[in-house]
Amino acid sequence: MRCNLFKLSAVTATILASFGANAALYNVYHYAPEGTDIHTYGVAVKPDASDCWSATNCNDSDATVNSFVITMETKKNEEGFSYRDESPFLLNKGYYYLDFDDSPTEDKIIDGFTSYCNDYLRYDADYCKDNWAKEQSAGYTLEILDKDYTNLNSSLSTGSFSISGDNLVVNYIDPTTGKVTGNHRDGDAYRNVAFSDSALLSKPSDMSDFRASHAWKRLGNYTVGSISRENARDPNDSSSKAAVWIGDGNSATVSEIKWSDGASSSHSNRVVPQGGARDIIHSGDYFAVGYNSTDKELSVAAVFELGDMSDIANANTKYVTPYTDDEKYAHSILTSVNDNKVAIGSVKYRVNNNGSYSNSLFYVPDITAGTLSSTPFSGSIFFQSANGKAGAINNLNEVVGEIDYQQHKEVGSSSPRAKRAFVTVISDKTISKAPFKNSAYYLDDLTSGSDALTDNNQYRIINATDINDASVISGTALFCAGGYDTQAINSTCNGGATGSEKLVAVKLIPIQGGTIQPRPVDQVKVERQGGSLGWLALGLLALLGFRRKQ
């Protein structure tokens, strides 16, 4: 059914102008190295501490813009089982959904993804099977059935890698050397093997049951990630432990961090303990964040107390205590931590959370505290049942990620909510110079306005993955060549024609002197008989479309 939209008119624009001119806070630069017909995603941004808000014009030349390097990925299909995750869907029983009795077929793979959707997303059953499962499993199907390992390709916005491999993912760029850390395919034998700088990181000395390794962050001589091994009870399953490498390449030594006492990989219910580290800081001692397995084999957001790195295998694990309830939560994870010892993460609900089986965002104010408390993100965009992704936190307590933009009930629905990228500041807000520091915003609201050097209305930013200390952001946007039909956050592209929007990697660079003016919302036109709306009423209706952040 065609939806008639109320568009901003010249009269409305005049009314809006009376509120004062405004300038965008960010320029948007997009990257599509293989063209816009293939999906491109922004992943990470090189660390940088330039003061883009006041002291440095970070958009003054191509050279300056290019110096803020981002990594990006092009994908032919969704990979289904993320190349970054230790287990499918990050579940302790994730391999149960990808067990095909040693005789995989396309139908069996789709059925496995459908079962996960029915259990943990609870969309309409037909939508789970006919839409979600087919789309999400496409890359994994080619990998399993056709041995096609060329689904994903990574690159830099400026420069190139000194390492190569199939399905190579990058999680971190070194600020000094520009070298990268991540994992890639290793022939037919290993789906993922960790690398840092220009070489594969050493595999463990005991290779008898080795399955995979992942690397996420490098700090000095240390790299954190995980080691996966074949499950002792069922060879179709893998268990994993958080790991730390000391040194470079094949000469590095690797240690695996123990699970909680009582956790076991030999249970018969397909529940397998998992663990992994995602980030690391040094604050007197070394601390890593990620998740670990409790004595019930539940994957729970955790801090690993690594001390001076002399006994990594026996490092103490502290859990974010609210999320140890295995009847309410399916898994939780800390994804990023800053030098202020503030960490961000997400928790996946096992139960209906007011209309969705949500992946909710939270932060830990102090990872060195004796008990790790969980604080939800504040602001109207973080409503109770919102699904989110915790992207990154910088050392100014600025956080980016992804959050549901729509708020309809997802359980039983055939329409998952639309997403938007967000930015906010948590904990101590005074250390940030950003104009957005006192609230939470969709990034689309910070690209709206005059004075942008780029055509910002060509983009609706759906995910923000990283932010450095210069407040430069990497992410992914929907791209409408020539601009969206209106300035509204929910505007159509080319009248809503199918295929008009493309997915591109984006880099957002701060603009000095900008102000915040949220984008309007295109509203459904209200038909009236026996009269018409006057110009003042029309202007008021348009103004009501503007969202105020709390």
List the helices and strands and how they pair.
Elements: E1 5-6, H1 10-17, E2 26-31, E3 39-45, H2 62-67, E4 70-75, H3 106-120, H4 125-146, E5 152-156, E6 169-173, E7 180-186, E8 190-197, E9 199-200, E10 210-219, E11 222-230, E12 238-246, E13 253-256, E14 276-283, E15 285-293, E16 299-307, E17 316-319, E18 329-337, E19 343-349, E20 359-364, E21 375-376, E22 388-393, E23 398-404, E24 419-425, E25 440-442, E26 459-467, E27 473-479, E28 502-510, E29 523-524, H5 535-544
Antiparallel strand pairs: 1-29, 2-28, 3-4, 4-5, 6-7, 7-8, 8-9, 10-11, 11-12, 12-13, 14-15, 15-16, 16-17, 18-19, 19-20, 20-21, 22-23, 23-24, 24-25, 26-27, 27-28
General description of the model:
- This protein starts with a strand and ends in a 6-residue tail after the last helix.
- A 4-stranded antiparallel beta sheet has the order 2-28-27-26, with no helix packed on it.
- Helix 3 (106-120) crosses helix 4.
- The chain has helices at 10-17, 62-67, 106-120, 125-146, 535-544; strands spanning 5-6, 26-31, 39-45, 70-75, 152-156, 169-173, 180-186, 190-197, 199-200, 210-219, 222-230, 238-246, 253-256, 276-283, 285-293, 299-307, 316-319, 329-337, 343-349, 359-364, 375-376, 388-393, 398-404, 419-425, 440-442, 459-467, 473-479, 502-510, 523-524.
- It is built from 5 helices and 29 strands.
- With 550 residues, it is mainly β.
- The longest helix has 22 residues, at 125-146.
- The chain has one domain (26-510).
